[in-house]
């Protein structure tokens, strides 16, 4: 299931054994521990996990925007080129042009002091040597592309004059200004109402169909994963715990965490007189990680073997960071039982 | 758990809250924000009433009106038979003991320099409950009730995770032994696994203490799970009030249907939801007639003209009511 | 936008009226009698002469009537005549205004010219050695009284370089270079606190803005750090910096009173100094009103600049 190395089918983005550290007041903490994932051209890969699991850090590491963090190990390969230690100026030619990103909070992600037209023109001209007039034409096109009505008039609007949904459309327009090959969407709809979320996701899908842009979709919402993803990578406490196709992961989750996470979501038909199947406890702190399986303390199936560090194992058509599936420990049966 | 025959705990009648209709020295007159525009509802003893709606629907304002944390422009709220709008300051303070609020972000509502013991006993001090020793004893009981160890008393708010902090928020709300807790997006900021824990806790507490909740949230599935009845709110008005199982299985109002269809489901692969067109209009200038009609796929003649009333439908005794011309006994034609 | 400007201007005028009233009343509380002060040296002054002088100056009337005269004159732009030499107060102030304005502007120029780059460097290289040094200097710059700094500058320049500033004032039209040399030290002494405040405010607001989400967006699109810092973060940081600048104009104006005295500059500061000594009420009052007017005018301009920089303020009241 791992993308073959060095072949003609080199994935667009490959992350291998990535470690990221942050400097804090109390020393360094490791936010990512041995993260492996890849994204093929035009593919939608959902990165799913709870807060603090390292999803956003992975995105920022790819873009070289870690701030006071640093890559302390592993490799990031973009389009066959190692960009792990790339300088800021090298990364600038990738950012926006080849890899673009939209962030969670559209209310604060646009500069409030400039018109949206100005910000789109700027985004385009960073990578294109064109006149302001030409860039302005492109800005109008982009607004039209993302479904903003009256784009000629709206280029003169300031962010505060737009609704949250419209601002997120403008963010998408800015991200797509230079026809990138990969769009990283970091919780793009978390701050929006469900009805607007549906509109924005439909827009992203439509734009993918039209431009063939690959999508790295970071989300905590399994519903969004089901709707959008070709493949899913599940993060827990700075590690990948399970990865595979969306159908595999959602229908036949193998890692106890993935299963518990899916169970904890209230559905439209969850019996109201029963307890929600919650995961006990909380995610361990980054500076206090267990040496073995990081989920063991909350896992209903943990045994003595879980005290050992768990590698990410290749299974039939997926990867799982748990020894049980490998043991053939009656994987499918207990799972069905737990999932009811 | 619901006490069916007794008088309801809370009855709100024609609640209206308009913001910013005052005219300043230099500010031109402009239409007020009609945050809540004529809402009537009841909360029974031991019941959880859910309140859902998009941002800008007025659901938080409604919650604060019911607690009289803000003054209504018009309308009345009766709590346990007493009209709280007519109460004197001192009587209101007494009544406040019996109604509490749990916020979305508990940590920012705690004083960071207070220990958890202080956080939990402060409401008891305000309401003159017990002496120091008995308050501390009660604080320990409360921590036990919400599933936290008693050594948490000596700690400070920032030392807790989001889920633990929300447990403390619930414990604080419980400290005055209230009859009603308004939960305003109380689980919205929590991770799914922790959200499930807090939902379980809220249900368990209700089972033990028999109190009522007004549960305000934007996630319809969460509201449905925890509530007995659900109110769907749109632009300051109630669109539908229905039994919790009905709201998901048989949503009647087109807006409830759209909201239900908008929830992404982990079980439906690669199915794009059919997005509801447009966005919620400004509550300064709500549409004429039915406020939902510009976005409604089922609107009929007259929806843009006549405002539908919230009418009880179905058999007598059925809890559902809908404000939609499609359900008018005499259709507006 | 016009509405906003009108509102700011009206508030400004209201504050100015309040200031004029307060100063009028407070001035009467200064002990000492202007007539006795003027006639004290003359031998054989009779009570009749004193009474006559009092009547001439209009000081025999009740304070309320005096206030009425003052307000009546003020709305016509007449600040009365000096008790000292009988010349119109407006004329006396206008003679002295240019020197004070020049000194104040030079002080602001010094503050901005050095404060802005220091703040920028501090923010970009935060927690580096150069940042720590600059922050230390900024604290010193803010805490040293300007007159003391001026005296230090004079003393050390004299000791080390044997240089002292000219003692005779030349107006910029007579001798520009001499004028500027004369103004140099007082402008530095006066602008040091402004420089320090601007540097500190710019540093902290830049650091805050550089951590904000929209800056991350702009970086993520491949913009250069120059564009990120100077254009986007810089523009956002301008509002607090202008606020500080508007408030600093107050302390600069206050500082002119003593510094003009130390450096023998014939500006409004020395005028008010002399007038206080002589209990020359109309001149004191006139000067204070001028100072107040300048300060309020500057701050109205600052308020308008907010609106120029920030569209959210510009469109306030005309919501979408």
Structural description of this entry:
The complex is a heterotrimer of chains A (340), B (333) and C (320). Chain A contains 12 helices and 12 strands. Chain A is an alpha/beta fold. Chain A has a domain at 253-268 and 275-338. In chain A, strands 6-7-8-3-9-10-12-11 form an 8-stranded mixed β-sheet, with helices on both faces. In chain A, strands 2-1-4-5 form a 4-stranded antiparallel β-sheet, covered by helices on one side. In chain A, a hairpin with a 2-residue loop joins β4 (69-78) and β5 (81-82). In chain A, 52% of the residues are buried. Chain B has 333 residues and is an alpha/beta fold. Chain B has a domain at 7-17 and 34-98 and 212-264 and 274-333: Rossmann fold. Helices cover 29% and strands 20% of the residues of chain B. Chain B has helices spanning 59-66, 89-96, 106-109, 116-126, 132-145, 162-174, 192-209, 220-226, 244-249, 254-262, and strands at 10-19, 33-43, 48-52, 74-79, 82-83, 99-102, 180-184, 212-217, 229-234, 237-243, 311-312, 321-322. In chain B, the strands form 2 sheets. Chain B has an 8-stranded mixed β-sheet, sandwiched between helices. In chain B, strands 2-1-4-5 form a 4-stranded antiparallel β-sheet, with helices on one face. In chain B, α4 crosses α5 (132-145), α5 crosses α6 and α6 runs parallel beside α7 (192-209). Chain C has one domain: MetI-like fold, CATH 1.10.3720.10. Chain C is mostly helical and 320 residues long. In chain C, α1 packs antiparallel against α12 (281-309) and α5 (89-124) packs parallel to α12 (281-309). Chain C has 13 helices and no strands. Helices cover 77% and strands 0% of the residues of chain C. The longest helix of chain C is centred in the C-terminal third of the chain and has 38 residues, at 225-262.
In short:
Chain B has 333 residues and is an alpha/beta fold. Chain B has helices at residues 59-66, 89-96, 106-109, 116-126, 132-145, 162-174, 192-209, 220-226, 244-249, 254-262; strands spanning 10-19, 33-43, 48-52, 74-79, 82-83, 99-102, 180-184, 212-217, 229-234, 237-243, 311-312, 321-322. In chain B, the strands form 2 sheets. An 8-stranded mixed beta sheet of chain B has the order 6-7-8-3-9-10-12-11, with helices on both faces.
Write the layout of secondary structure elements.
The complex is a heterotrimer of chains A (340), B (333) and C (320).
Chain A: E1 13-24, E2 27-39, E3 44-48, H1 55-63, E4 69-78, E5 81-82, H2 88-92, E6 99-102, H3 116-127, H4 132-145, H5 151-154, H6 164-175, E7 182-186, H7 194-211, E8 214-219, H8 222-228, E9 231-236, E10 239-245, H9 246-251, H10 256-263, E11 313-315, E12 318-320, H11 323-327, H12 332-338
Helix pairs in contact in A: 3-4, 3-6, 4-6, 6-7
Chain B: E1 10-19, E2 33-43, E3 48-52, H1 59-66, E4 74-79, E5 82-83, H2 89-96, E6 99-102, H3 106-109, H4 116-126, H5 132-145, H6 162-174, E7 180-184, H7 192-209, E8 212-217, H8 220-226, E9 229-234, E10 237-243, H9 244-249, H10 254-262, E11 311-312, E12 321-322
Parallel strand pairs in B: 3-8, 3-9, 6-7, 7-8
Antiparallel strand pairs in B: 1-2, 1-4, 4-5, 9-10, 10-12, 11-12
Chain C: H1 2-27, H2 34-39, H3 47-56, H4 63-75, H5 89-124, H6 129-143, H7 146-161, H8 176-210, H9 213-220, H10 225-262, H11 268-277, H12 281-309, H13 311-314
Helix pairs in contact in C: 1-12, 5-6, 5-8, 5-10, 5-12, 6-8, 7-8, 7-10, 8-10, 10-11, 10-12, 11-12
